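hey so i finally got around to running the thing on that chain from the lab meeting. sorry it took forever, my laptop kept dying and i had to restart like 3 times. anyway pasting the input first so we r on the same page abt which one it is
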Amino acid sequence: MSTITASMVKDLREMTGAGMMDCKQALTEAGGDMEAAVDWLRAKGLSKAAKKSDRVAAEGLIGVTATAARGAIVEVNAETDFVARNDQFQEMVRNITALAAAASGDVAKLLAATYPGKSVSIEDQLKEAIATIGENMTVRRTAVVEVSDGVVADYVHNKVADGLGKIGVLVGLESAGDKDKLAAFGRQLAMHIAAAAPLALTPDELDAETIEKERAIYLEQAQASGKPQEIIEKMVEGRLRKEYFQQVVLLQQTFVIDGKTSVEQAVKEAAKVVGAPIQVTRFVRYALGEGIEKKQDDFAAEVAAAAGTN
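ok and heres what got predicted. didnt touch it at all, straight out
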């Protein structure tokens, strides 16, 4: 059986907001598995957190660029936030982002592109930057959003420079209406996406495994009511629609700009201002370091090793 440490309990409490003893029990029940412990707390109604234990911080920058009907986004990682504030690193990310649209979301294609102002590839430029700055760096991911008739709106949160920050968003809106007014609404929608972190545009785009996982949690909670199975099944499906989908599906979320209407209704209202129907076709939201497990170094052990006492 895994040893449950105070540090593990502290981390779980910070992730979920549950009590210390509840967190300890959850970790014990889950055999020390952090993600399983989060699910255990949620099933018991002790946590409403949807965070995953692997969504920890990593450093670097998100680069975003958009022009009318096409936009691109890139995540470039480094080891420390110090490097992210480095002018040389920021310039490199900006140059890489400028070429991302032509790569159409293909990291390998982007890395093979010629770096602006030089005769080397982006991949070789990264190697040169690693040697100069002294930290490992990588182009982790990239995506493109485009529309045929409309706008691609962008937004950067925690901005450190133009087009560079910790969270980046692109959202495509198709409409034959006024493009300036459409762009203004698109920016509001991009800000909403940055804040609300939807997982999909519609329920149909959600991962089936994720839905089943949520259904299992609701089922365990509903079964405690002692009601007939057919009633329990209706309760579970109702909660999926009214709770889970409204939390993670963009069009069903409450629009953060007014805090009242759904995003779907906000789109319909914006269409009246724009002068034509609006269809949200796609969005991409990158949060720096999401999904990267960052190594936790034991500084004391490093010092002891360096002193030859360990």
